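Entry 14. Ran structure prediction on the chain below.
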Amino acid sequence: MKMTDGDNFRLRHIREGAKAAWPICLGYFPIGVAFGVMSQKAGLSPFETGLMSLLIFAGSSQFIAVSLLSSGAGFVAIVTTTFTVNLRHLLMSSALAGRLKRVKWPLLTLFAYGVTDETFALNMARFRSRAWDWRSALVVNQVSNLAWILSTVIGAYAGAFIPAGAFGIDYALVAMLICLLVFQLRGRLYVLVAAISGAIAVLLSIAIPGNAHVVAASLIAATVGLFLRKRAGAGPREGRGSL
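Output, structure tokens:
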């Protein structure tokens, strides 16, 4: 059966998206396995672990939720905490909105579901550096999603054979987030904003319970960074220290 131009067009975006997503998938595997092991120690079955990854698809929130479950926290506390931690997705989605103006809402909803720290960082970098189609970006999101779900289920099955805290799995998510931060530091302004955000987060954590200090610090630091960029005369143009 002969392939049409439309089929070739779709296959091209699938190939581009899958090729771009593989480093994320490679990074997700050890973290997903680590989460699966932790969820098994918290009493979740492989099915429940996979369902949680499918419905939530937010690594840090899932780690937090499992930790709260292990400590005996209630439903309201778990939902409120994970919701607060995931508020950073509001900032990431807002940054991506300008690149997705022509996307219809059903696909936009599917795209929003797949936005994570890692897919956001990769897609924004591709959008900035060259012509990057939203279809390829959507493939990045969904391929990464599949890799995350599979790795967490594998970890849930393997949890019965791996001692808690073995192989440094408790540090896996932190290490990946630090790596993502380093790749985003493309100039002195970025380093300054990151330092301000970290300092404010530490100070606010003393006064604000839960994880709300993370969102607050991000908003304050981003505002300061925007002010400094405008004051330096960089303006909103790409490639001149834009955020």
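Residues 234-243 have pLDDT under 50 and may be disordered. Will compare against last week's run tomorrow.
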